[in-house]
Every structure is written in structure tokens, then in C-alpha cells.
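In this supplementary section we document a worked example of the pipeline. Step one takes a protein sequence of length 168 as its only input; no multiple sequence alignment statistics are reported here. Step two produces a three-dimensional model, which step three serialises into C-alpha cells for compact storage. The input and output of this example are shown verbatim.
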Amino acid sequence: MRIIIALCLMLFLLAYPACAWEARVVSVADGDTITVEPERGGDRVKIRLHGIDAPERKQPYGQSARGFVHNVSLYKRVEIDTKVKDRYGRTVAVVTVPGGVLQEMLLDAGLAWVYPQYCKDTFCGAWERKQSVARKARKGLWADPDPVPPWEWRRAKKNNQQQRIAEE
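The serialised model returned by step three reads:
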């Protein structure tokens, strides 16, 4: 009987839409990862921005993306709309900062890609249009004639490391 009750409770919680919560940004790791302190108290939470992928810190425009997020969010009150937890234990969320949705601001500035593997929501089409507008205007990373998406950059870096290990 306890198992049935537990299963029903889990189904209810999975079906129940996540509520947005307020927090204060206390650090910025890179263009798509921040750490927040919940307004309601509790432990700090690492947040991965849902639906986008910003350049890695050592990748071209990585420091620009990080600096942008730092400037618009650090020590500010934000709203976190949780989507899921990722395999690294981070909360994946849409983040609203003073001035708008952080993901949209990064896309408008040309400092992130829509992450097609993970952005499946109805608003992702609008985000792709924002990315297209920034690309046509050659904003941010789109000034580069052939920008490399972070997921490809990470894969190439991993392959290079594996090749070096194999050659040793």
C-alpha cells in the first residue's frame, strides 16, 4: 500500500508544474551557469540556463558571454523557473533578471546558441528567431565568419585529448 501511495505522490509531483522562485545571483561561472542564493533561505543552487549553450570560457567569445551574464545578473534578484535537474546535479531553469529573460538577452547579444538537443519548448522557436536576427546583424560571436557551437568545441577538445593519450 505504501508503494502505491508513493507512486501516486511521485506522479502528482511530476505532473504538477514547477513554480518559479526568487533568488539572488552570487556568482557567475560562465555564460550559461550561475549560482544563486534562494530568497526563501537554504543552500546555494547552481543553475544551468535552459535551452541555450554559451561559448566555453576558453572558447572565442566565452569571456564575453561570462562578462555579459556577470554585468546583468550578479548580486541581483532573479526569478528561477525550474525545468529539470541535469546529470551534474545542476538545476536547469529559465532565469528572469531585471530587464528580461537572461537566455533571450544572451541570444539578442549574439553570445549564445539555442541548444537544439535540449530546447524543445514552445518558446524555442522565438529564441531561434532571436538567434537568427543576431546572426544576420553579426552581433557578438556571429561577427566570426565560422563560429563553432560549444557542443562541437567540447567534442573536438575531448577527441584531441583522447588522441594525445592514445599517442603516449
